Amino acid sequence: MSAVSINNNTPKYTHESKPHSTASKQVCVLIGHSIEAITSAVVLASLGQRVHLYADSELLTQQIQQYGFEHHLQALWQMYEQQQVIISTALPASADTLIQYYETTNFSDSRHINESNEIDDQSTVALYWLFLDSIKPVWAEASWITAFNHSHQQSLPVIISGIEKLGVVSALAQNLQRAWVYYVPFVFLQDGDAYSSMLNPSLWLLGEKTANSSQHLEVLKPLMQHARAAHHADIATIEFARSSIMAMLATRVSFMNEMSRLADSQQVDIKQVSRIIGLDARVGSSYLQAGWGFGGNTLPIELAKLQQSSQMHSLNMPLLQSVMHINEDQKELIFRKFWQYFDGFIDNKTVMIWGGSYKSGSGRTAGSAIHPLLALLWSYNIRTIVYSDKAQAELAVLYQQQPLLQLINNPYQQLSAAQAIFIISWSPQDQLDIAKLNQHAMPVFDAQNALTRLQIDSLVGDYMGIGRSK
User: Fold this and answer.
1) CA-closest candidate to residue 150, choices 174, 128, 178
2) pLDDT above 80: residue 40
3) pLDDT digit string (tens) for 162-214?
4) Is 343 helix (H, G, I), strand (E, B) or coil?
5) Residue 108 contacts by C-beta under 8 Å, 6 or more apart in sequence?
């Protein structure tokens, strides 16, 4: 990776890190290694800004590799790094070191050394953007707050992003002795389409320490303008709104999963019910699909933080607790259907599993139902053959010592060896070959409800979904 040299004497760019000249002479200083930080760096570069990204180098590399399924984002990242529009370097041990670098290099005086070692009088630092989950392990809160308060660049905006307990970001903003402090929650980011979802956000929320001050975030103006919906408010309100949105989405998922169990007993197809419910404008159609539940990082972390917030204020939130309980229990439901189908005689079988990510289009398996499913299957000495296009690399690392796991590159290549198929995540864009499934007439356990009713009716073997069956 490119590097920016930082020391306590005469900070300067190394020969390898001198950035190429760009149309914009502004520098956005980002601190973080999360996918949100990486995406922000690429989007800002695409908007004509130069970006200095500070992060744990090893964690940054790991994150970029883990998000290899974000092809567009990766391609742009590599291009901007090669052009030195994005310059990444190791996060210094203290915020003082970083701030001193930009102050003593006269960035605040609009000066910068360009690739010809000439002074560029048009260069300015546009903003600092802090991603809390990345800086917390390195910088103590009191120390970086003090460093920013002692900075001579008090007119520069500071943006904070991250999922914290309610009120934490608002308190941080109040402790920062500057007017232009903002909070940007990434409620719009879509795993598998991170770049486009940030460039054209579905919902742009902006928390402001000082009311009606968004004009100081000129570099983010295109994102605000391109958002399908936007709202600015004080930081505490935006924090509460962010948490409420995520809790509502989780509640909708868990409600439909609870209803799916009743649908099983009534021989009703919950997928058809979901479509009908979505026709009611008061409800809408999003997050009404029954399945194995929700995973990933954002929703589970958000719910955990919300629960911590309620406990801090001695408030009982039984609905939230039920949502979390239903979600965890739902991840084992498809295994119980499998156990019941074979009347418990499942030892030493071989099964096929399609998909492993927590959602279609993602390569991440955090919170995915595949983990409890694999653990349960292996406890019965069941051999598992897994096809997971985007998540295969992550599964290989997580379970590299597991002899009962075999990863394959073609979903149909070993069907003859299996006695059942589980579907965890399957992209709607990938057409299922029902004819190949019918050659083996084995039961299908569809935890995602991926098959259409026409496909289910065309199956020779049995079908068990979530709230729907053959």
Assistant:
1) 178
2) yes
3) 999 999 999 999 999 999 999 999 999 999 899 999 999 999 999 999 999 99
4) coil
5) 102, 124, 125, 152, 153, 156
Nearest to 194 by CA among 300, 54, 67: 67
Task: Inform me whether the pLDDT recorded for 69 exceeds 50.
Answer: yes
Q: pLDDT grade, residue 462 (50/70/90)?
A: very high
**Phi, psi values for residue 87, rounded to 5°:** -120, 120
Q: Where are the alpha helices (DSSP H) in 190-342?
A: 194-199, 221-226, 235-266, 270-278, 298-312, 318-330, 333-341
Question: At residue 129, does pLDDT exceed 50?
Answer: yes
Task: Please give the pLDDT value at position 329.
Answer: 97
Amino acid at 144: W
Asked if 111 and 119 count as a contact pair (C-beta separation under 8 A), the reply is yes
The set of long-range contacts for 457-460, using a CB threshold of 8 Å and a minimum separation of 24, is: 458/434, 459/434
386's enclosing H/E stretch is strand 383-387
Contact 211, 188 (CB under 8 A): no
**pLDDT digits 0-9 by tens, 352-377:** 999 999 998 889 999 999 999 999 99
Partners of 408 in beta bridges: 387
Give the pairing of strands 181-183 and 12-13: unpaired
Tokens of 252: 């909708």
Cα distance between residue 407 and residue 263, in whole Å:
34
Q: Which residues pair with 384 in a beta bridge?
A: 351, 405
Which residue from 433, 442, 438 is spatially nearest to 459, judged by alpha carbons?
A: 438
> Do the Cβ atoms of 274 and 256 come closer than 8 Å?
yes
Is pLDDT of 13 > 90? Answer: no
Q: Is 381 left (phi over 0), alpha (psi -120 to 50) or beta?
A: left
